[in-house]
Amino acid sequence: MNKTAVVFRTRVLILRVCIVCFFFSACGDNDIILDPEVIKCDDTARIDNIVSELGSSNFVAGTSQGDGILVLDLHVGSSIKLEYECIEKTEEFIEKSELRIFYSDGRILILPFLNNILHSYIHNPNGKTPLSGELVLNAALPGKLSFKIPHKDEDGEVFGFQFKAGATGFRVPILGLFYNHQNQIILEFRDEENLYLRDTIVVGIGQRPNYLPSIIVDIYDPNKTEPGMHFVSFRGRVPSTPFILDNSGEYRYVLDFSSDPELAGLNYDVGMERLKNGNYYFGNWPSPLLYEMDVLGHILSKWNIGPFEFHHNVQEKEDGNLLATVSRYDMHSSGRRAIEDWIIEIDRNTGSLIHSWDLKKSLNDARQVMGWYEWQDIVDWAHANAVIHDPRDNTIIVSCRTQALVKLDYSNRPVWILGNHKAWGKNGYGEELDKFLLQPLDKSGNAIDDQLLLQGEKSHPEFEWPWYQHAPLLMDNGHIMLFDNGANRNFAGFGEYSRAVEYEIDKSSMTVQQIWQYGKERGRSCFSAIVSDVDILEQSGNVYFCPGSRVNNDGGNFGGKIVEVSYPDKNVVFEMRINAPDIVFHRAEKMALYPDQY
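Structure (tokenized):
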């Protein structure tokens, strides 16, 4: 149990009075031997000779009355028969799992009734989730388990969740607790007609750790925002520490690997995301290891991708396989060792390598138009920071920060290149790369032939190239959206704004048209030269625009920012500042606290 959390039970424990009118033999809880005769009211000797209580798994499942006899049916199939003449009444307390029998001489029998629901709560069971716990509940009859956690602020939103119905046993995570608060977990277990259990567990949790950044929510329109909370892959400490914030800016989930012998130095680079099965997945840079983990921090799967080394991004494909940006430290055309210029696909089930793409062959590894990083004998010329799969034509789309956004087929040949047209030359196969460059169009569909625009020297009122982009995604309409960081825009040596930008690409005509953008109007208040994320939110269609590093957050503060805007009219419906130095996050996601699998 986490020492910073104190757990109290507010439910009064049932004291089962053992004046139960039958004999037990020395056997297990489910092997009760009963005297079939009716137990008379004055048969005190038999009552006095009771040698044991009902065991923890034995209880009264139902009652019936007839011919002056009260029949107590046990869930194991046996029954107890009591003479009814001296019984004044019986009362069923379903909420407390009690059957009370009131005798005329003042005796009251309290027997476990109906479910005898056994449940226990363990806070932070894996030592990695200080705002979470695990609930274990066992019952004989199926029912629905739900809970509510009142907000620490009186006018805050109450969080509630119902687990999938029909089960008799549950081992489930309890998520959504608060720092610096006496949290109340209000449990209910019921079927369609009966409430079998209501219990309140109080969990006291101490102050928020200093390493977590301060949060300021500036705008929140509950009627227009996407449902869910904010999953932030925080990079402001070692180990990398993801957290979830609610819409009031309160921490509701934290994953801290500092006590883990393997992951205490975790750098997940781009961060964690949620698999289709509800678990999280991530890589650890610099290592050859990828991980799958549940919400309580248990590592469920681990893939070793050696001889490659993970960096930046791992992405789940539609078929469940994993794409990853990786390094191999093989020879660059300059004679140095190259990094961050391979993509691999691995089989999710076996961990075996299915396919690989060497960007030194598909592109021109000598192109330095956008600059590159070099030190000692290492060169980072492409800086591949993201990869996604396009199932429409079975290709991959790779964001090469210091080159362009590139679509590649499974033979490692370019399909198109989205980026300025300056000095592409030939790729490693000897192909002229100019033939893969996309022609920009204005809003009317006319070609923009201004050479200064094509070469990246200036912008057009209706079109701009992406600069040092991150986080490409496929929209439902087939368009591509990405985070255009805007650093060194038009080779000016600096940046003034970042954008979420939508492009329509026609690969048959090799054209690209800018459809929509947001962020230019925000200037440096949303400018992030590096990292950052953008998403299209599933239910509302809103755009989730997330500049992640050194954003000017006013008052002398810098950090990251999360801005949710309606699409296409660009009304801000949510805005949050996350104040911390340097890189705050690569990625942030709007998601439900619990995945659908629960």
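The first strand starts at residue 5 and ends at 9. The domain at 117-205 is CATH 2.60.40.3100 (Immunoglobulin-like).
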